[in-house]
Amino acid sequence: MTTNLLILAGACFNSKGSFQKCALKPDDCSSQVFRSSYWLSQNADAEIMSLCSNQQSIRNLNSLGRCNGQADRYICTSDKTACRFAAVFEPNADDCNLVHDFHDGNEFTNAHFGFCYQDSRFGDDIRYCAWSFQECGGKDS
Predict the structure, then answer these.
(1) Residues 32, 37, 68, 60: is their CA dihedral positive or negative?
(2) What domain range is 27 assigned to?
(3) Domains in the chain: how many in total?
(4) Across the strands, what pairs with 66?
(5) Among 23, 39, 123, 136, which is disulfide-ready with 28 (CB 3.0 to 4.6 Å)?
(6) Is 38 inside any structural domain?
(7) Is 28 within a domain?
(8) Distant-in-sequence, close-in-space partners of 76: CB < 8 Å, separation ≥ 6
(9) Residue 106 falls within a domain, yes or no?
(10) Which residues contact 141 (CB under 8 A, 6 or more apart)?
(11) Residue 73: left if φ>0, alpha if ψ -120 to 50, beta else—which one?
């Protein structure tokens, strides 16, 4: 049985506590304060929570970076751990969103994500997408 999970965004707030924009990770907020989706669900008003949980809005967030090297084929991806050489990762690429890669000259148009694999000795194998390979844990990842 396959379970589809939706991604929820957090948000950036200025120093006075005013909402600025939806964001997926603290790096997206630069000098602003990042609040997680859980924090929003507990503390934000319904309008902000609705905006930052709208899947179409989330798909368009420029929250991915780019493995900016030929060995990685210049892919849009979520974290430097997805690059063969972490040093070539450039965060927050303007031509990447959660779904599309708009880089001129690429033969593909989709963003790329890593996945975790855990060999289950007592049931089904577990495979899931991950923002960073550090989320996989375990020796079978």
Answers:
(1) negative
(2) 10-59
(3) 1
(4) 76, 90
(5) 23
(6) yes
(7) yes
(8) 64, 65, 66, 93, 95, 96, 97, 100, 101, 103, 111, 112
(9) no
(10) 116, 117, 118, 133
(11) left
Residues 6+ apart with CB under 8 A from 60: 97, 98
Q: What SS3 string covers the chain?
A: CCCCCCCCCEEEECCCCCEEEEECCHHHHCCCEEECHHHHHHHCCHHHHHHHHCHHHHHCCCCCEEECCHHHCCCEECCHHHCCCHHHEECCCCCECCCEECCCCCCCCECECEEEEECCCCCCCEEEEECCHHHCCCCCC
Mean pLDDT by 10 residues, the chain (141 residues): 66 96 90 94 92 88 88 88 91 88 85 78 73 68 38
